[in-house]
Amino acid sequence: MRIALFGPPGAGKGTIAGVLTKRTGAIHAATGDLLRAEVKKQSELGKRARSLMDKGELVPDSLVIAILEERLNQPDAKKGFILDGFPRNLAQAEELERFLRRRGENLEGVFDLRAGEELIIRRLSGRIICPACEAIYNIRTLPPKVEGKCDRCGVALIQREDDRPEAVAVRFREYREQTEPLLEYYRPQGLLHDVDAGSGAERAADEILTILARRRGAAAAKG
Ligand code: AP5
Is residue 176 part of a domain? Predict the structure, then answer.
């Protein structure tokens, strides 16, 4: 599986990617998670990224492309990948295409996760994450088994700095201005599919897998 998930902040990209990873073995390549890991390590890259991320602004393309390519070059990515948060603008989309072409690969599908803005804002206000393993919870819809603790590693859960209302507003603006226009880059290539992300994540994952199976069937029939 080689796919990209699109959708505004809080649409459920990370949550649905988590479900797909469990079901298919493809890796979840989330540039936001990769950047947050650099911030935690206090690497040079992390230091440059941090202030931009906290404000909700995009990190320079060269930094993001480098960490994404490094992730996709790791052996476990051979089983496939689910891109979350990348590409985010035209330059990143073109670079991704060149990178995949060099490997003799292409994207099998691009999925636009659709959910209403009011619902998304409610989701973001309730999101808590594990700073160690990046597991995603929600105080209302997906609480951890023990309050405030990660189910997987027991670490204390936190709110993301960029889930403050001011940063959420900037992230929405960046999405509308820079990322949403990319949908028109993928539509003419016949890769783009809308997916309802307003109800359960399992159901959205089912929809994605059904579409992919149909695409593969059609490609096989063509020979
Ligand atoms: P990133 O981490 O990619 O943030 P984002 O795109 O704003 O997306 P989110 O992670 O906020 O939301 P999501 O759609 O994954 O929702 P989630 O599944 O968590 O990027 C952060 C920053 O990094 C950027 O602002 C930028 O600075 C930088 N960056 C990253 N990539 C970059 C790039 N390519 N170029 C430049 N800069 C880059 O769900 C949200 C909540 O809703 C959770 O609590 C979840 O439990 C709940 N929820 C989700 N789905 C459901 C459902 N179906 N039902 C009920 N609850 C649900």
Answer: yes
Judge whether 47 counts as a catalytic residue.
no
Catalytically annotated residue among 171, 173, 176, 187: 171
Residue 88 near ligand 1, beta carbon < 6 Å: yes
Q: Which of 71, 98, 160, 203 is catalytic?
A: 160
Range of the domain at 208: 2-26+79-222
Inside any domain, residue 14:
yes
Q: Is the minimum distance from the CB of 160 to ligand 1 under 6 angstroms?
A: no
Active-site pick, 36, 71, 88, 123 = 88
Is the pTM here over 0.85, yes or no? yes
* Residue 160: active-site member: yes
Digit-coded pLDDT (tens) for 98-146: 999 999 999 999 999 999 989 999 999 999 999 999 899 999 999 999 9
For residue 51, tell me if it sits in a domain: no
Q: Taking the CA of residue 68 as centre, how many other CA atoms within 13 Å lie in the half-sphere pointing to its CB?
A: 27
Contact between 66 and 93 under an 8 Å Cβ cutoff? The reply is: no
Q: How far is CA 60 from CA 46, 54, 72, 73, 84, in A?
A: 12, 14, 19, 21, 17
| For the CA of 113, the nearest atom of ligand 1 | 14
Number of domains forming the structure of the chain: 1
CB 167 within 8 A of CB 54: yes
- CATH number, domain of 106, equals 3.40.50.300
- Asked, for residue 61, whether it belongs to a domain, the answer is no
